[in-house]
Design goal:
The chain is α+β, with helices and mostly antiparallel strands. About 35% of the residues lie in helices and about 35% in strands. It has helices spanning about 15-30, 60-65, 65-80, 120-135, 160-165, 170-185, and strands at about 1-10, 35-45, 50-55, 85-95, 105-110, 140-145, 150-160, 185-200. The protein has an eight-stranded antiparallel barrel. It is globular and about 40 Å long.
Length: about 210
């Protein structure tokens, strides 16, 4: 399965309007497209950064919709007050302990590695890191997206509440360090967000 993520550095005062627009206008249109299996949105209400992710049955379905979603993307970016950047991913791993509820949060880690090491990163995360992630307080779900050609990855872990996410920061830092040591990957960015829309209905991929 594949995913397309759109990031907008918008104006903090427009976040709620943007969330409503994505949920009420964009999501029904995207979910009606052939091959779409859901949409999610995370938001940082302090900085205005928003990331909308759509999931697709396969790479062909994702690419076939590229031109159709462009006007929707631009409209949403204009509404939020920022420029949109787009990334495309393979969904390498997804596991849910339970469904998210109101108030859930997400910690996202972006990293880079030698493209030849992508499978090693996936294996090390799935076999060595994920069993420990599942034990973290308030753990809800985890996903790992990869861009094999570029050697990039995007790891998202969701928690039941901001308090749970905050309580796990030190443990998560240690697990990131373990993964870096095992694989030689480099963490390029880390962000913490509110989970505004959670309808990324991807099946378990473990």
């Amino acid at each position: 399965m594949h995913a397309r993520s759109t990031t907008v550095m918008g104006r903090p005062g427009m976040i709620e309007t943007g969330i409503a627009h994505i949920q009420d206008v964009v999501m029904p249109q995207v979910r009606a497209m052939d091959g779409c299996v859901g949409l999610s949105m995370v938001a940082d209400r302090v900085t205005g950064r928003c990331i909308v992710t759509t999931a697709w049955r396969d790479e062909s379905a994702m690419r076939a919709t590229a031109s159709s979603v462009m006007p929707m993307r631009q409209q949403a970016a204009d509404l939020l007050g920022g420029e949109a950047t787009v990334d495309e991913w393979e969904i390498a791993y997804l596991h849910r302990d339970h469904r998210v509820a109101d108030g859930c949060c997400a910690r996202i880690t972006w990293s880079e590695a030698d493209p030849a090491m992508v499978d090693s990163v996936i294996d090390a995360f799935r076999d060595g890191i994920m069993p420990k992630v599942e034990q973290l307080e308030g753990f809800c779900s985890a996903s790992l997206f990869v861009d094999r050609a570029a050697g990039r990855s995007c790891l998202t872990v969701t928690y039941d509440s901001p308090e749970a996410m905050m309580a796990t920061r030190n443990a998560a830092m240690g697990l990131r360090a373990d993964l870096v040591q095992q694989t030689g990957m480099r963490v390029t960015e880390l962000g913490e967000f509110s989970l505004a829309i959670a309808h990324l209905d991807v099946p378990e991929l473990v």
